[in-house]
Design brief:
The protein is mostly beta strands. The protein contains no helices and seven strands. A six-stranded antiparallel β-barrel has the order 2-3-4-7-6-5. Strand 3 and strand 4 form a beta hairpin.
Length: 95
């Protein structure tokens, strides 16, 4: 399901966001492996709360993996597309 709100220009998101707080592993050479929390999730990406940790910069590619599932979740590649004082927004990279 997509969101189409181009009239105001304020919200250019293509996917509906779902508030979801779960643990996620973020992997990047600059920070190693970090366990952080999601803020929201969509078909196209995820928002990661910084939880006071230093995270990679906009444009960097990272790997993420949902934690605490009954089976090991796959590693997913994502690109950091936005950052704010609370965390970073990731867009999933489709191979």
């Amino acid at each position: 399901m997509t969101e189409n709100n181009n009239d105001s220009g304020a919200n250019m998101r293509r996917h509906i966001r779902t508030n979801l707080r779960t643990r996620i592993k973020l992997i990047h050479p600059s920070c190693g492996e970090l366990i952080v929390h999601t803020g929201d999730l969509s078909d196209g990406g995820v928002y990661i709360n910084a939880d006071g940790q230093q995270l990679p910069e906009i444009g960097e590619r990272v790997q993420v993996q949902v934690q605490d599932l009954p089976i090991e979740a796959p590693l997913i590649e994502a690109k950091i597309v936005r950052a704010d004082a609370e965390g970073i927004g990731l867009e999933f990279v489709i191979p």
